[in-house]
Amino acid sequence: MSGGAIRHGIRPDDLAHCRAVIRTGSLSFHTASRMLPASVRDPALALYAFCRLVDDEVDEGHDKVRAVLALGARLERVYAGAPRDAPEDRAFAAIVAAYRIPRALPEALLEGLAWDAEGRRYGGIGEVRGYSARVASAVGAMMCVLMGVRDRHALARACDLGVAMQLTNIARDVGEDAAAGRIYLPLDWLAEAGLTPEAFLARPEATPDMRALVARLLEEARRLYIRSEAGVPRLPQNARLGIYAARFIYAGIGTELRRQGHDSITRRARTGRMQKLGWLGKSALYAGGSMLLPQPATLYAPPLAETAFLVDAVAERGQASPWWGAGRTGALLETLAALKARDGAAGQQGRRA
Question: 33-39: long-range contacts at Cβ-Cβ below 8 A with a sequence spacing of 24 or more?
Fold first, then answer.
């Protein structure tokens, strides 16, 4: 067993499995992760493999409700120290124990996936940020924990990066989501463009109004990408290159969207190997301090209202409560209970049929 495996407790075969999952399922993260030191990269691969698994279970499964409920049970087993006998679960349980990951973080991710399962739509950009906080910023906060960072300001900027990346995802996938009957765009923005969700889903088109809406979403992401940069110097020196790489590679998707006229309905924005190499070079300049960083005041900007609960869950506050926290929030319990009730009602209806 390698020295890294001893520190984080992940079995070598489980780590190899997680690495393979990320290599095939998330090329952008795999590229950026190669810039991280092994002490951070290995547990990060385990973290992302588990997050990828839970996302795929809900996104690709035939029964999203049961998938979320099953994931809740799996997470319960992880925090009980008895994970399911699967590589991703064992590896995630190992880093939960080794790095004392607050339970509120993976539970926030689960809440976001529960919102997906119930087909929730979002009235305004604040609600979209709230969803992004759960499915993306929660992962960014867990990455900070893996690096030993619990500084409030660094956490707030990491959460900014998570929201920016998710907004980029939403902007890129408008057409694919519509084809699947899903919509993550702010409904009030759609209304301003003279569209109802039903009309758009029935006939998604890259109209000038829709292109303008995508551009507006990317501008929201761009602002947060810039804010996020101020937090990177608060991270360990040997981890900064990888985080800058993730920031620039993901923002590059938005650049491609702009080049194709903000059409994410008839086309999908893709980035090439040479572009990624260019962004890695830029990341190296930033990590080495060869380029000017944003004004220091950016670092101290308060967290987004939608991500403040994640910062609070991680930041050291001198409380005597157990590191894993009190467990599920009332909102998550209510969401899971509603899903369970819906699942039971659907089962009864099926039996009557």
Answer: 33/242, 34/242, 35/241, 35/242, 35/245, 35/280, 35/283, 36/238, 36/239, 36/241, 36/242, 37/236, 37/238, 37/239, 38/2, 38/4, 39/4, 39/7
Whether residue 230 is contained in a domain is answered as: yes
Who has greater pLDDT, 67 or 87? 87
Q: Tokens 């923005």 correspond to what residue?
A: 189
- C-beta atoms surrounding 12 within 10 Å: 12
Main-chain phi, psi angles of 27, to 5 degrees? -65, -35
Q: Which domain holds residue 209?
A: 3-317+336-344
CA gap 212, 325 in Å, rounded: 43
> In the chain, how many domains are there?
1
Domain CATH code at residue 290:
1.10.600.10
Q: What angle do CA 63, 69, 75 make, to 5 degrees?
A: 130
- What is the model's pTM? 0.87
Whether 233 contacts 223, CB under 8 Å: no
- CA–CA distance, 94 with 38 (Å, rounded to integer): 16
Q: For residue range 245-278, list pLDDT tens digits in order.
A: 889 989 999 999 999 999 999 988 888 778 878 8
With bands split at pLDDT 50, 70 and 90, how would you rate the model's confidence at 309?
very high
